[in-house]
Amino acid sequence: MIQTDTNYMLPYRPRRLRKNVFLRNLVKETELNIKNFIYPIFIVEGENVEQEIQSLPGLYRYSKDKVAEEVKRAVQDGIQGVLLFGIPDKKDEMASSAYDENGVVQQAVKAIKNAVPDILVITDVCLCEYTNHGHCGIVKDGQVLNDESLSLIAKTALSQVQAGADMVAPSDMMDGRVGVIRETLDDAGYSDIPIMSYSAKYASALYNPFREAANNAPHFGDRLSYQLDPANAKEALREVELDMEEGADIIMIKPAIGYLDIIYRVKETFNCPVAAYSVSGEYAIVKAAVKQGLLDEKRTVLEFMTGIKRAGADIIITYYARQIAKWL
Question: How much helix, strand and coil, in percent to the nearest 5, is found in the chain?
Fold first, then answer.
């Protein structure tokens, strides 16, 4: 016991282990490791394209030749995995560019694998970037059709794997798509390809910068009929359970910062590999505040990432990945 001026005897002083950096490091409970970060990249058609994204300062859209160079730079920084989003020139009602063997993502995967064979290439599987209406499935009479969309989503995943993708990440939130993708890949001889499912993808206001970057905002209505209501947590657990039963290998929660409770509950409930996507709006908010001199960028980003990891995420997808690699 320690006698204080108020005659209260302190049984323990927690500040003892915060006294200097060596003691703080000794008892640190959560450690960031660049091996657990995934770097998202936007791919466009053409050649020699490196176009800065207005809504995401410091990030670019790359053509297949330029993306190979960017991935090489990322690997030099310590990045071990990338997540690719395609932005095609051609869009139509059936999202035909999504599953074209010469599509924008398929060509990018081949270029990256030729340049950096050992990098983990994950491909986003969705139709919204490829449809002329901007929704994540086939539309008829103003309705996004679930079951009719599944075969095209699975066809997209298969074409990306045939191009060389190491993992597919379905983000459409159609019911049953994980099972159809798993069956399609297995039947084609790709039973070893893992699926990272956007199982708890919320209908968030924080996607707007991404929609500008990928040119995939819906041309009518919204995505509330298939993405999760931000008010619901139990529903997210049901979605996760269904995806795992259908064959998902990694469960993703998106966005991250506003959904730390979901990350925690999923990890505690299922004890499965959990990914968290720190989305475009989270990146843009920090960038805007830093530009105004309101926040220290490095401290803020690392604090956010530590919170995501502490909540239970094994994998963090963030546009800050390359910068974090340099900081760490």
Answer: 45, 20, 35
Closest CA to 325 of 9, 71, 91, 8: 71
pLDDT 10s digits, 205-260 = 999 998 888 777 777 777 888 899 999 999 999 999 999 999 999 999 999 999 99
CA-derived radius of gyration, the chain: 21
**Maximum CA extent, the chain:** 78
Residues labelled as active-site residues: 201, 254
Whole-model pTM: value is: 0.94
* CB neighbour list of residue 10: distance below 8 Å, 6 or more residues apart: 1, 2, 4
Give the CATH fold of the 32-327 domain.
TIM Barrel (3.20.20)
Domain chopping of the chain, boundaries: 32-327
| Cα 209 to Cα 258: distance, rounded to the nearest angstrom | 17
